[in-house]
Specification:
Blueprint lengths: L56 H5 L13 H31 L14 H79 L5 H9 L7 H15 L35 H15 L3 H10 L6
Helix pairs in contact: 3-4, 4-6, 5-7
Length: 303
């Protein structure tokens, strides 16, 4: 709320005595000083602007407008601009002197240069920070090396894996080729076996050769011994019969019915006769060559 500057109708009239100091008195330096209010505990009554101003209800309702200073009037501003640097310099000097006195009193400034001692906590924090920085730098460097080594290892593993995979593929292909070859050979042997068996009456020796493999005799020596043995017994005729003893067939079984353990067609089927004869040689002599040696050693010849 704005302060009321007018005089109350019941207030005493202002004094007309001249002031001890005029508003236009000259101050220090020859410059005019503005009028200052009286230094007292009470607020001085406002001075009317004109001697013929009569207080009334109309004037009391509207307080007088304070006259503003002209913009060209600069005495007080110049004083303020001059006084502020002086005051700041004085405060700075005072603070500096106080700080110097305190440092001198607390032996911060003196003969001993070691008075400025850094606290152990600060030293410990500094060391810890340095160690943390070193550890972080070392970790980053190690991590970078580790990544590079890992990449190199992955690349090497990839190359090694590719080579191993190529070798594995080659081995697998070779194994499959070998299995295919063996399967083809086995199939061919089966076809030959079947042809030999089907043609046993015309070529009983070929049928005996394929059937010897069932007993584990695959060498030419065993085959030749068998050929010589049964040539001397029956000349490989499946219908041959000894008129004196009754021995019958290619192996000259005595009696002939022994061959019935391998088939009831033993009198007409050379395969049944050959199978029984090979079984008998194995059980009695072990192999055809042993049987042939025994046959030769006996007279008359038999086995």
């Amino acid at each position: 709320m704005a302060r009321y500057e007018g005089r109350h109708r019941n207030a005493p009239a202002p004094s007309t005595a001249p002031s001890s100091k005029r508003a236009g008195s000259t101050g220090r330096g020859g410059r005019s000083q503005p009028e200052r209010p009286a230094q007292s505990g009470h607020t001085a009554p406002a001075v009317p602007r004109a001697s013929n101003q009569v207080p009334s209800d109309e004037t009391s309702a509207h307080p007088p407008v304070t006259r503003r200073s002209h913009r060209h009037e600069t005495p007080s501003t110049r004083k303020r601009r001059v006084g502020r640097p002086i005051l700041a310099s004085t405060l700075a000097l005072g603070l500096g002197a106080s700080g110097f006195a305190y440092a001198k009193a607390t032996n911060l400034i003196g003969a001993d240069a070691a008075a400025f001692v850094v606290g152990s906590g600060v030293v410990a924090q500094t060391d810890e920070l340095a160690r943390a920085t070193t550890v972080d730098t070392t970790y980053r460097a190690a991590a970078s090396v580790s990544r590079n080594e890992r990449r190199t290892a992955i690349a090497a593993t990839g190359l090694r894996t590719a080579k191993e995979l190529e070798v594995k593929k080659k081995k697998e292909a070779a194994r499959k080729a070998e299995e295919a070859r063996e399967a083809a050979e086995q199939a061919e042997r089966e076809r030959e076996r079947q042809r030999a068996i089907d043609n046993a009456k015309e070529d009983p020796q070929a049928a005996a050769r394929v059937l010897m493999a069932d007993q584990g005799w695959t060498s030419d020596a065993q085959y030749n011994c068998l050929v010589n043995l049964w040539t001397g017994e029956s000349d490989w005729r499946w219908w041959a019969e000894n008129s004196s003893s009754g021995a019958y067939g290619i192996p000259q079984s005595l009696p002939a019915r022994k061959m019935a353990t391998f088939g009831s067609d033993y009198r007409t089927n050379p395969i049944t006769q050959i199978k029984w004869g090979l079984w008998y040689i194995k059980m009695s002599y072990g192999n055809p060559c042993n049987a042939w040696s025994t046959w030769q050693a006996r007279s008359p010849h038999w086995y």
